[in-house]
Amino acid sequence: MHKKQQKIIHQIFEDPVRSDVKWNDIEKLLLGLGAEISEGKGSRVRIFLNGVRAVFHRPHPEKECDKGALKSMRRFLQEAGMDYHAEL
Asked: In this structure, which of 16, 46, 51, 68 has its CB flanked by the most CB atoms within 10 Å?
């Protein structure tokens, strides 16, 4: 995992929850972790990582995730076995 990905992981798990993490950066992180990403209807994005599936909505017109979406991403990464402390 390179520095940019480590930074994004840190931002996702940071408290208090941030509202300035760009969705595009999260997608790049997920791909770097080996996730499969496919497009759904509308703004839906299906993600499969380490046997765990989730559906997220790509934010629009903003580029940043809101706090609720970031909390959901945090939970998804934890369920997929992402040990973020080991990466920081």
From this structure: 46
